[in-house]
Amino acid sequence: MKIWLVVTGKTDATWLQQGIDVYLKRIGHYLPFELKVLPDLKNMASLPPPARKEKEGEALLAFLGNRNEVYLLDEKGEEMTSRQLAALVERKMTGGCRELVFVIGGPFGFSEEAAAKASGKISLSRLTFSHQMVRLLFAEQLYRALTIIRGEPYHND
């Protein structure tokens, strides 16, 4: 199974990108993983938030195509423990899922069309984080999930 993390725009902070790179490398030891960066759309600052969500949604849907195992990382999503995330990933792995996609939306969330495409929504916390910070947090949690699945000692209960 291949896992994707889809984000909009590049990571500006070098220190964040360095942390993300550490976990991308670690995750790659377990399964194929790719960070897909959708380019920032031009002239978006002048658009009202609903129009920005729609434009970002169109770009996301174009990438997703017929991929049907899509989870949105959203503050209104289901809160999970690390073990619950590991169980979700393991169910997808053993259930024959070929590609599992996690998506971090833009600052105004997801368009209705993108939300309708999702299999579910996951919240990493009730706290609010920058979209760039969520990239690092999710990469660490995915790595943690993979070590839980393998029974490795990274996670301590």
What attributes characterize this protein structure?
157 residues; alpha/beta; Alpha/beta knot; 5-stranded parallel β-sheet; 5 helices; 5 strands
Q: What structural category do the secondary elements indicate?
A: alpha/beta
Oligomer: single chain
Give the CATH level 1 class. Alpha Beta
Largest sheet: 5 strands, parallel
Number of strands: 5
Query: What is the share of helical residues?
Result: 40-55%
First and last CA, distance: 27 Å
Walkthrough of the structure:
It is a single chain. This protein is α/β, with parallel strands linked by helices and 157 residues long. 44% of the residues lie in helices and 21% in strands. The protein has a 5-stranded parallel sheet with strand order 2-1-4-3-5. The longest helix is centred in the last third of the chain and has 20 residues. The chain is globular, with a radius of gyration of 15 Å.
Short description:
This protein is of the alpha/beta class. The protein is built from 5 helices and 5 strands.
List the helices and strands and how they pair.
Blueprint (H helix, E strand, L loop, with lengths): L1 E7 L5 H14 L5 E6 L10 H16 L5 E10 L2 H13 L4 E6 L7 H6 L2 E4 L7 H20 L7
Parallel strand pairs: 1-2, 1-4, 3-4, 3-5
